[in-house]
Amino acid sequence: MSAGRPRRRGRLGRANLEDRAFGWSTRLFALCVIAILALLGYVLARAAHPALLMFGWGFLSSSVWDPVREVFGAWPFIWGTLLSSTLALLIAVPISLGAAVFLAELAPPWLRNPISFLVELLAAVPSVVYGLWGLFVLAPMLRPVEAWLGHRLGFLPFFQGSAYGIGMLAAGLILAIMILPIITAVSREVLLAVPRTQREAAYSLGATRWEAIRGPVLRYARAGIMGAVILGLGRALGETMAVTMVIGNTPTTSLSLFSPAYTMPSVLANEFAEATGKLHSAALMEIALLLFGVAILVNAVARLLLWSVGRGAPRGVRE
Amino acid sequence: MTAQAKAPSLRLARRKAANGLMWGGAVLATLAALVPLGLILYYVAAQGISSLNLAFFTQLPKPVGESGGGMANAVVGSLILVGLASLVGLPIGLLGGIYLAEFGNNRLGWAIRFAADVLSGVPSIVIGMFVLALVVIPMHGVSAVAGGCALGLMMVPIAMRTTEELVRLVPMSLREGSLALGATHWRTIVKVVMQAAKGGVITGVLLAIARIAGEAAPILFTAGSTQWWNLKVTQGPMSSLPVQIYLYAGSPFEEWHRQAWAAALVLVTMVLLLSIAARYATRGRMRLVR
Predict the structure, then answer these.
(1) Taking the CB of the first residue and of the last residue of chain A, which one, N or C, has fewer CB atoms within 10 A?
(2) For the complex shown, is ipTM > 0.90?
(3) What is the fold, at CATH topology level, of the domain defined by A75-308?
């Protein structure tokens, strides 16, 4: 739309100049986003540099985190992050997909929007409020459940140890609740984007409702649903406050869901205020850099998958 | 009935049973997704109402051991931080969103959209660490400005993408009408398109504010917390409701736990009202999660 030759005199020429100036200034502000991302990576890498030099790749695999002797290895935090996020996905994905199928395919039309909105409201609740609730309501409720599980299924490595309430299980549950809305809302949109003909073809062949959903609809939406799940994973990996408040903040690499643990975001939240040594803060910055790298990767993959099915993609690119 | 006729009807029964089972499963899953919302809202309301009073909004925190007191400084601090965040985040978000909607159907627009979506997935604590390294350390200490920067950065992608979506909703014929009357392109955008998109953009802004008002992680080390009044924005810690909830919940004092619940009630009420208003104003077009 920004047509017009640059060399014109008088009012028309000025109007043309104003148009170009306006276009360029909006472009400049839009470009800020790319600049922010680049600056984020640069500043974190610079701050983490001493730790990067000192520990190299061993930082990822070593389990010793000792600020006094200035030896730092992040494995327990990486482990805690991976385990809590996996647990959250295991709980949240089936529920989210069930709810998304219900909201996109099965529910009566008058029910769809209000319930979708209620599920999305879960995402509006601040993270610290989840933490507060997890700490004072969920964790005490979990204690008898954990004791029972330990009694019945104690032979499995996941259900061993004492039942504190606070720990990996509480963190996984809270995270699951927190990523439910995004996985549900995004997969619902993906399902709504599946062409009607997919379903109608299946019905015309005599398929039941579920058969039409399982094959033609879900398979068509596969990439988008994967994107929604990965988006949820990204949120779970970086969630800070709620997890910090319920996970117990003890660096362990236990498989037990009852054991207190530590995650990468939690160690940042807990230790930065006390980080006095240069190497200590550099090590924490390296954890932040690691989180940043993982977040970029996970979100890039998720967005590309979602754009490939045409959700949230730019016009023009959308087919 | 012969054996041949029986086999298909049995299969049909099985298919119908599978259908019913998945129906039930989907309904149960939806209920399971709604239960936590109910539980959280119930506890926040129940615990919060009994602890909330006028002193919460008018008094400073009392020292440990004394009962009473409030969080007046954190309430005001939260407002100041959100205001500063809007100063940082909204210009980039709004103008960037206009660019994406009006000029962004090209490669650069694609890259910017992609960057904005990726930025919205960067963990808030990482944003906090970034601002810590970039602003707090050179300024030798926490400040409201640093906290506002961190929250503002989080606002950018939300504001940008919602603005884009809402500006795109303005019909092409309005632009064409204005251009046909001889208005320049930028006047068309500012006077006609933005006028038409105004309501939607304002609700988008409110939604972005709702999303960052409850964030504690980015301001934990950038704005900090204090028991006193501090209205200087460039120097010294600035309390806020989310950080106060985090600190009070982790304390061993019953009185502080009550205060934390009261703060949670204030925060949740505000965020939910903003979200419901935004949803209502855009007639359900706006997704709350992105």
Answers:
(1) C
(2) no
(3) MetI-like fold (1.10.3720)
